[in-house]
Amino acid sequence: MISAAKRTRRTRSPPDPSMLDTYAARGGECAYGNLKMIARVVSAVYEDALRPVDLRAPQLSLMWAILATEPVSLSRLGRVSLTDQTTLSRTVENLRRAGFVTVSAGTDGRRKMVALSAEGRARFARAMPHWENAQRRIERYLAVPEMTALAGRVRKSARAAF
Question: What is the pTM of this model?
Answer without folding.
Answer: 0.77
